[in-house]
Design brief:
- The structure holds two protein chains of two kinds.
- Chain A contains 26 helices and six strands.
- By secondary structure, chain A is mainly alpha-helical.
- In chain A, strands 1-2 form a two-stranded antiparallel sheet. Chain A has a two-stranded antiparallel ribbon with strand order 3-4.
- In chain A, strand 3 and strand 4 (73-74) form a beta hairpin.
- In chain A, helix 1 runs parallel beside helix 18, helix 17 (291-309) packs antiparallel against helix 18 (314-343) and helix 23 packs antiparallel against helix 24 (522-545).
- Chain B is α+β, with helices and mostly antiparallel strands.
- Chain B contains five helices and 18 strands.
- Chain B has three domains: 3-116 and 351-381, no CATH class; 120-129 and 275-346, no CATH class; 132-271, no CATH class.
- In chain B, strand 10 (228-235) and strand 11 form a beta hairpin.
- Classes of the chains: A mainly alpha, B alpha+beta.
- Chains A and B meet through helix 22, helix 23 and helix 24 of A and helix 2, helix 4, strand 14, strand 17 and strand 18 of B.
């Protein structure tokens, strides 16, 4: 039985991964999957309805599921269709997450109402909206960095309510009962003018494609704009009619009509925007498969197996851990490659993708280290970093779509693929050295499991990875300087993010010189390497929190708490490393460290 | 030099101390940017030998931390000393030699850039031709003789020299310019709008109607400083009066003296170019359905004074124009896409970082390559790895 663990666990994991890649199936008679693949123009790119629904739900409530009052679970598409076509119904779904009790009290609501009450419906909140708006206006002029938790809460909630309200104006106004009927009756259509103007003004999406001969992105228009065009010039717009027909079919629960119209829309667009249609279909599939979630779970499993392998069955569990981590790595690689294809960009384009890539790079290095050393150490460090970076990525994804357009100054695939990739690899390897050092310290101080061979192999790994990190962070920083010289006319501008990268280089240089000068031995090396975690975390997130400089693109509030906690924990671990070595429980360090 | 100090300067311990001090300096400077702005930080932390602190409640300043020049210089000294004493030229150490040579060059290059680099900008409207760029931060007092119909004659005085009581005399000027007051930042208000205005410093021109109040210099990148001052002009037969000068004044003070017309303007310091730039077109692309900028581009016509160059050039993001020792970058736009803002950088030492970076990268590749090669050879040969080498 013991011998079959590696094979059995890999088989189980493979089966699960395969399952997540199965094409999505419709829960009922409606072709929701087909609807989810229909493209709309939003944030500068054509994306599927599925992405609109999922990013909106993640942003509003931190998860993609919607549960109705009767306890039925809705797919993101069903929710979005209700928002578009049955707003009165959608208003009753509890999709606004409010964590701040002061904000809740604005609405006369109480978190204590029932145990799992953090999400509320638009209908529940409607009465308190005027007061919320007043509070948000008061908080608006306060600089984001200095807002209180309450002020952040009201500003965020009012933005969320506004976005939701705007979504309702995408394909009709919330009060229209039968747009399709109106389209057939010029008098009724004219009476709707004010509604169409509101749609043109409010909807964040351009859902109506240009005429058949036109395949420019710029030709996409909001439904309101298209309807006003019909009013002005007469005639018909087939795409508008199809959308209005979808609305009626959805409201009247006519799946056959609905499916027919979805198919017609797809057929019409397939000739006009073939590339975008392929990408949208793939993106919807990618959203459904959630490869990063899969790999996150596998990392946890790999970590547990690796840690247990230090106590029992080292060979078998170690191999199982290695295989699971390799599988998780492959799935994550697939996810990153998929994003690259969708975006047409190198892997790192924003803070979210940097988190994915840091995890990916660290795990890649760990796979190599584990092949060389085969003691489960690199495996557990890699799984830990892989897991942590995916959790960070998840939290970053809550602020909106992660496939963003690049601002003009960043719009350079050459520099994104050289400077950004190298400097991010530098981050990844500095973190890896730090996490390996954490394993050394925790195992050495708290357990008796750190034998001489493991301690020496850890010391070699940390030293090697620090060399690697020095090389990459230095080259990356230098390439950044060259990019800056090419774009802004100065090689070095002492911008916070530049300084952050330089700090990593200097810190790694300190570690190397301490080692070469014999100022530190194994124990000191480990303490310094953990310090690298602090420096890198500062460079990655801390510099963005200053809210200044050319690179301040990723300000997040919740991240600040996380950063402080992380730094405190790292300092505590460095404190552990400073404990005199005769107090360490592992004998190997007592002799050599 | 005796051996003991050389050994101190060459020690790895000193390297580590200097690196740690540099880390602290850079970290402190990053945090202080919130208060001082990026330029203020550079002056205080990096282009200095010491960072000075003030004893609370007094005007007594004392050095609290080594500045960029001191640390950079000490690192260079440390590297050089180490190479003189500890390092031998050998293939095994060739990577370290290259890296350290590159580092020395890099430190020198950054220092030189700090001393030599001039950052200016050019704002050009569509169709307009400009022959000069303007400094971002430095101002000058221009005394302009506008008598001739087809050209102006300009004598300029750097604003930094306008300290109280300073006198300026120039063969082209029939009067002496005497600095009465100078404020790096001030607010201007109309005298008539104040209930209890102070006595006027200016005795001639528009300045008599204006009250200038000095205010602290701002580091906020969204705000501007408005340098303001007063100068007295003194001719052979007595004072012409005290005039106000300010970058906030749209119309410079104008007056006549001895049959010639003059203007007094405090303005951004100008760098006159040996060529003219005409903005032919400015384009500002956004992603459809958003206001996210996709590209800015200026199509310009460049005509050199010697007549050798007359061509059309497109300057856009990540694609500057390098010409006549200056680099022109697309920095921004204004005026509803009707005006382009080009950043003009003049830095004779701009190539040094490229060279030094090449050396450093090559050096690290060589050095770690040697380590890696040795490591794999040991593994494949089955020889147990020794402890990491010390140098």
């Amino acid at each position: 039985m013991k011998k079959s663990i590696p094979l059995f666990s890999l088989f189980l994991a493979l089966a699960w991964v395969g399952f997540t890649f199965l094409p999505a199936r419709n829960p009922g008679a409606f072709d929701l999957v087909g609807f989810g693949r229909l493209p709309v123009l939003a944030d500068g790119r054509l994306k599927p309805m599925d992405t609109i629904a999922r990013t909106a739900l993640l942003m509003l409530q931190g998860r993609q599921d919607v549960v109705t009052e009767t306890g039925r679970r809705l797919t993101p598409e069903e929710w979005l269709l209700d928002v578009y076509f049955r707003a009165d119904q959608a208003d009753r779904y509890r999709i606004f997450r409010i964590d701040n009790s002061e904000v809740l009290s604005l609405f006369g609501l109480d978190a204590g109402d029932s145990a799992r009450q953090v999400r509320f419906s638009f209908a529940q909140l409607a009465a308190g909206v005027p007061e919320l708006e007043r509070q948000a206006e008061l908080a608006g002029p306060v600089e984001a960095a200095t807002r209180t938790a309450f002020q952040r809460g009201v500003v965020e909630l009012s933005e969320h309510l506004e976005y939701y309200d705007r979504l309702k104006y995408t394909l009709q106004t919330p009060n229209q009962t039968d747009l399709l009927g109106d389209l057939g009756d010029p008098a009724r259509l004219t009476a709707d003018r004010a509604g169409f103007e509101a749609m043109e003004k409010f909807s964040p999406l351009r859902a109506i494609p240009p005429g058949a001969a036109d395949n420019r992105l710029d030709g996409w228009q909001s439904a309101g704009h298209a309807l006003l065009g019909i009013l002005a010039k007469g005639g018909a717009n087939p795409a508008v009619s199809r959308m209005a027909g979808l609305g009626r079919a959805w409201r009247d629960a006519q799946p056959d009509r609905f499916n027919l119209l979805v198919a017609a829309d797809q057929a019409a667009l397939a000739g006009q925007f073939p590339g975008a249609m392929r990408r949208c279909a793939f993106e919807a599939f990618f959203n459904e498969a959630e490869p990063f979630y899969t790999s996150l779970v596998l990392y946890v499993a790999a970590f547990l197996l690796a840690v247990i392998s230090w106590l029992k069955w080292p060979a078998e569990l170690g191999r199982a851990a290695f295989r699971l981590m390799a599988l998780a790595f492959l799935v994550a690689t697939g996810g990153i490659v998929a994003r690259m294809w969708l975006e047409g960009r190198p892997p790192v384009t924003n803070l979210y993708s940097s988190a994915l890539f840091i995890g990916w790079g660290a795990v890649a290095l760990c796979l190599i280290l584990e092949r060389i050393n085969r003691n489960g150490v690199a495996c557990s460090a890699g799984a830990m970093i892989g897991f942590a970076t995916l959790i960070i990525a998840h939290h970053l994804s809550l602020s909106g779509d992660t496939l963003e357009m690049m601002r003009a100054v960043l719009d350079s695939n050459f520099w994104l693929s050289t400077h950004v990739v190298t400097v991010t690899t530098g981050y990844a390897s500095t973190f890896l050295a730090g996490f390996l050092a954490i394993i050394y310290i925790l195992r050495g101080v708290l357990t008796r499991t750190l034998d001489k061979a493991t301690a020496d192999s850890l010391a070699r790994m940390v030293y090697g990875i620090v060399c690697f990190a020095t090389l990459f962070s230095l080259v990356g920083t230098v390439l950044g300087g060259i990019w800056a010289d090419q774009s802004w006319g100065r090689f070095w501008g002492w911008d916070p993010k530049e300084n952050g990268a330089l700090l990593i280089v200097l810190w790694n240089a300190v570690i190397l010189h301490c080692r070469w000068g014999g100022l530190v031995k194994q124990r000191g090396l480990m303490g310094l390497a953990v310090g690298g975690n602090v420096v890198t975390a500062w460079s990655w997130f801390g510099t963005n929190m200053l809210g200044i400089g050319l690179h301040s693109y990723g300000f997040t509030n919740a991240a600040f708490q996380g950063l402080v906690t992380f730094v405190v924990v790292q300092l505590a671990i460095i404190g552990l490393a400073a404990i005199p070595r005769n107090k360490w429980r592992s004998a190997a360090v007592r002799q050599t460290g | 030099m005796s051996v003991a100090p050389l050994r101190f300067f060459a020690s790895l311990r000193l390297t580590v101390v200097l690196l740690v001090l540099s880390i602290a300096l850079i970290f402190g400077a990053t945090l202080d940017q919130v208060h001082l702005g990026v330029w203020g930080v550079q002056e205080k932390y990096f282009r200095s030998f010491f960072i000075f602190g003030r004893i609370p409640g007094t005007e007594f300043f004392f050095p609290v931390f080594p500045g960029g020049y001191l640390l950079g210089g000490a690192l260079i000294a440390n590297l050089l000393a180490a190479h003189f004493t500890r390092f031998r030229l050998s293939w095994k150490k060739s990577g370290i030699w290259l890296t350290h040579l590159g580092l020395i060059l890099l430190l020198i290059g950054v220092g030189l850039s700090g001393l030599l680099q001039e950052d200016n900008q050019m704002r050009i409207d569509v169709g307009q031709t400009r022959r000069y760029s303007e400094s971002f931060r430095e101002t000058e007092l221009a005394v302009i003789d506008t008598t001739a119909p087809d050209y102006n004659q300009v004598v300029s005085i750097p604003a930094a020299a306008l300290t109280d009581g300073a006198n300026f005399q120039h063969p082209l000027l029939p009067f002496i310019v005497k600095a009465v007051a100078y404020y790096p930042n001030a607010t201007l208000r109309m005298r008539s709008q104040l209930t209890n205005p102070p006595p006027s410093v200016a005795t001639a021109g528009e300045g008599t109607d204006i009250v200038a109040t000095p205010i602290p210099v701002t580091a906020n990148p969204d705000e501007s400083n408005w340098p303001t001052g007063f100068v007295e002009l003194v001719g052979p037969d007595g004072s012409l009066g005290t005039f106000i000068i300010s970058t906030m004044l749209q119309q410079p003070e104008a007056f006549s003296y001895q049959g010639r017309s003059w203007r007094l303007a405090l303005r951004a310091k100008r760098d006159y170019l040996p060529f003219a730039i005409t903005l032919q077109k400015f384009t500002h692309e956004i992603y459809p359905g958003t206001d996210i900028p996709r590209d800015f581009a200026s199509t310009i016509r460049l005509r050199s004074d010697d007549g050798r160059d007359d061509r059309e050039i497109r300057i856009f993001m990540n694609n500057p124009l390098r010409y006549a020792g200056r680099a022109f970058y697309q920095a921004g736009f204004a005026n509803n896409d009707h005006t382009t803002v080009l950043q003009v950088v003049r830095n004779p030492s701009w190539r040094i970082p490229y060279l030094s970076c090449g050396l450093i990268v090559l050096g690290l590749l060589v050095q770690f390559g040697i380590h890696l090669f040795a490591f794999f050879r040991r593994r494949l040969g089955g020889v147990p790895a020794p402890a990491p080498a010390t140098s």
